[in-house]
Specification:
169 residues; twelve-stranded antiparallel β-barrel; mainly beta; 2 helices; Porin
Length: 169
């Protein structure tokens, strides 16, 4: 089975094939590595599929800005992410006490996944386009990303929901 470390040094693409559907594909050339889909157009719940494993991202309460992650078809979350209120990076709490940080610059054009030493693991650059498009660089091999590859799709999910919330008023 492939891991994200196998893509070290390569440039991956996250694209939205259709402007009218909230579905995204993570690609290496023509190979689809993963997908992120919203079952309903106005839903905040998303289904992620990466390396043949399925995950569900959701916000358990509308009044709290917390994102939780669980295996598809399960009830209990295995991880949670609380976006920062005034800082530029938020902490993603993973199982067994592990954690990574999700960071973005002020214009939201560059996103990073950082390890606990603030060393970048993955760099995501937003391309200027009508549809959502990111260029993704795996900066460092990481056991955490190999165990939890859905983290790569979670940072996209968080940014999509943030921009949706901003545009709604």
């Amino acid at each position: 089975m492939k891991t994200l470390s196998d893509y070290y040094g390569k440039t991956l693409q996250l694209i939205q094939p259709s402007l009218w559907k909230r579905a995204f594909k993570l690609k290496d050339g023509n190979e689809v590595i993963g997908t992120l889909t919203y079952p309903k157009f106005f839903s905040v719940r998303a289904l992620a599929n990466i390396f043949d494993t399925k995950w569900e991202f959701y916000e358990p309460h509308w009044w709290k800005r917390v994102n939780e992650i669980r295996e598809a078809g399960k009830e209990l979350p295995i991880a949670s992410y609380k976006p920062p209120a005034f800082k530029k990076k938020g902490k993603l709490e993973l199982p067994h006490g592990e954690s990574v940080f999700l960071s973005s610059n002020i214009f939201k054009s560059t996103l990073e996944i950082l390890d606990k030493y603030d060393s970048p693991l993955v760099l995501l650059k937003r391309k200027m386009n009508i549809k959502t498009t990111y260029e993704i660089h795996i900066e460092k091999r990481s056991e955490v990303l190999d165990k939890y590859p859905w983290v790569l799709l979670l940072i996209i999910y968080v940014e999509i929901n943030k921009s949706r919330r901003r545009s709604s008023g």
